[in-house]
Amino acid sequence: MSSPALRAGRDDDADGFISLIGDCWAEYPGNILDVDGELPELRALASYFAKSGGMFWAVEQDGAITGMIGTKPLEGGAWELCKVYTRPALRGSGMARTMLATAESYARDHGASRMKLWSDTRFDRAHRFYEKEGYVRAGPLRVLNDLSMSIEFCYEKPLVGTVVEKLDAAGAQSAIPRLAEILKCCVDDGASVSFLPPLAREAAVRFWTRAASAVAMGGRVVLAGWVDGVLAGTVTLDLDTPPNQPHRADVAKLLVHPEGRRRGLARALMERLEAEAAAAGRKLLVLDTKEGDAAEKLYRGMGWTEAGRVPDFAMNGDGSLSATIFFWKRL
């Protein structure tokens, strides 16, 4: 058996594309593939994407089509990811990531600043894949009124530069897999953020699941930061303060994945957090950090005032104790 190869899609791949989509749809109840009635572009996908200014690829193995992906431009600098399918034998092989990286790179090279896609709400396996790759739920559902009674989620992510965005409840929920990975990597790398290394992934997932619930209840703001399309950082703002402190908010979990550092992401996250706090009517922010952490220098450089230092406040992974510094800032 030969290795799968990614190549440009052709119109004469139509039968293979249709067979692949039909088999993938058959994994989920209620999906009906009506090519000529609803998806006639499948008869000539290469031409369809070329006319839209986009590009389409096929994965071929031993003469059979085993994967497909396309992308095309939208308005405002966004590009759409379309028709992403692989056969079960390719899943877990890394080919899906190669397909995605190829499409994103092509879109970026042709001026894309943002990627967007639509995915049937039933396609939970696809959702897990997109979420691991830094896509988050955005905007309302889309109803297609087709034979399959399709309802679709929208996923998006910034593709270029250092970008910080506020996540709504759906976005925060969909970001849990990647945020959990960031939290685990930071804790295991020595970050003092209430956990000890090695951090179990399940514990990280539980933390962000609670955070997403707090976002839905209006008690927390979760910001996410991307560096060139990779979801690499986050910070949270706790708005659930006591009744006599409605003017105040707590800052927590400023995290940047080790691979996303030295790109200005931590500062960008904090600048956006201060703007979100002001928009929420909060005039005083407080936070704490381990003495000597890189975050201490960042906070001082951004005008935060030290309120005091508590020795031996937090335990490190090796059992030693470190001092914690408390900071405040008026907005």
Care to describe what's here?
It is a single chain. By secondary structure, this protein is of the alpha+beta class. It folds into two domains: 5-158, Gcn5-related N-acetyltransferase (GNAT) (Aminopeptidase); 162-283, Gcn5-related N-acetyltransferase (GNAT) (Aminopeptidase, 3-Layer(aba) Sandwich), CATH 3.40.630. Helix content is 32%, strand content 33%. It contains ten helices and 15 strands. The protein has helices at residues 14-25, 35-38, 45-51, 95-109, 124-132, 169-174, 176-188, 201-216, 265-279, 294-301, and strands at residues 5-8, 55-61, 64-73, 78-86, 114-120, 136-137, 142-143, 151-158, 162-167, 220-227, 230-238, 248-256, 284-290, 305-315, 321-330. The strands form two sheets. Strands 1, 2, 3, 4, 5, 6, 7 and 8 form an eight-stranded mixed sheet that branches. A seven-stranded mixed sheet has the order 9-10-11-12-13-15-14, with helices on both faces. Helix 7 (176-188) packs across helix 8 (201-216). The longest helix has 16 residues, at 201-216.
Question: What's a quick, concise take on this entry?
Answer:
The chain has 331 residues and is α+β, with helices and mostly antiparallel strands. It has ten helices and 15 strands.
